[in-house]
Amino acid sequence: MAAGLAVAAALVWVYLRTRSAPRSTRFAWLGLVLVGCAVGCFVAAPWLEARPVVERLGWGILAAATGLAHACAFNLVPLPHNRTRLRMILVPLGMWAGGAGSFAILTQHQHPWMDLVALALALPVAAAWACVPFLARAPTHVQMGATPVPALRFCCPRCGTVVDWGRGVWPCTDCGLFLKIDVPADAHSASSTPDDPAGAVHLHCPACHTPRIATRGRSECVQCKATLSLHWNMHR
Ligand SMILES: [Zn+2]
Ligand SMILES: [Zn+2]
Question: What's the pLDDT score for residue 193?
C-alpha cells in the first residue's frame, strides 16, 4: 500500500504541474480522477475480504494513470524545432504502455504476450525520460533560416507548451500561435493593463536571468530594468 501511495503522490505532482497548460488540462483532470480511484482502492483494501483483488485493481488503475502522466508531461516538454513531430509518437506511446501494463496487471499476467507488449512499449517510454535532459536542453540561439537568433524560453500563451522562441516574429512549435518578441521593448509598445485577459508568461529576464512575469505589451525587469515587449493575437 505504501508503494502504491508513493506512486500516486508522484503522479499527482506531475498532474498538478501540467494541469494549467490548456493542452494537458483534460488529461490531467482525468489522471487525477484515476489516481483518486487508485488511492481509494489502496486505502479500502485492508478492510475488505477481497483485499488482493482490490489492491490489484488499484495497481491496474495506477498503471493507466502513469501512462497518462507521461502523455501530459511530453505534451509540454520543449523539443527542438526540427523534432517536434516526436511528440506525435511519444505522447500516445505512454498511453499505450499504460493501457497495456494495466491490462497485464488486471489479468494477473495470464497472457505472456501482453506482458511482452507492455514491456516493448515501456522501454521506449523509459528511454524518452532518460533523453529529456538532452532533448529539452535550453538552446542559447534558435535558427531563423541560416541566421542564429537569441532564444527565450517560456510557455506558449495559447497551448501551454514550453517553446524556445526567437526574437522577432516567431510561431509556437505546436499550435502555431505567432508572437512578436522585442528585446529591448520596441518604442511603440505600451504596457498592458494588469487585467488583460490574455494573461502573462513566466520567463527568465534575457539580461539578468532572474525569473519574472512578462505581460502582453511592454514590461520591465524589477531587478535590472531591462525591457521587453511581447505581442500576440489570440483567435479561438
Ligand atoms: Zn502554442
Ligand atoms: Zn533583468
Answer: 58
Closest ligand to 221 CA?
2
> Nearest Cα to 15, choosing from 24, 4, 5?
24
- Mean pLDDT of all residues in 10-16: 95
Quickly list DSSP for 168-227.
Answer: EEEE-TTT--EEEEESS--TTPPBPPTT-TT-EEEEE-TTT--EEEEESEEEE-TTT--E
User: How many angstroms is it from 17 CA to the middle of ligand 1?
Assistant: 17
pLDDT tens for residues 191-209? 665 555 567 889 999 889 8
Note residues around ion ligand 1 (Cβ under 5 angstroms). Answer: 156, 158-159, 172, 175, 177
**Distance (Å) from CA 142 to ligand 2 centroid:** 21
Closest ligand relative to 228 C-alpha:
2
Ligand nearest to the CA of 21: 1
Taking the centre of ligand 2 as the mean of its atom positions, its distance from the CA of residue 62, in whole angstroms, is: 43
Supply the pTM of this predicted model: 0.85
Return the CA Rg of the chain.
22
Sign of the Cα pseudo-torsion (148, 149, 152, 157, in order): negative
* 79 CB-near residues (< 8 Å, 6+ apart): 86, 87, 135, 136, 173
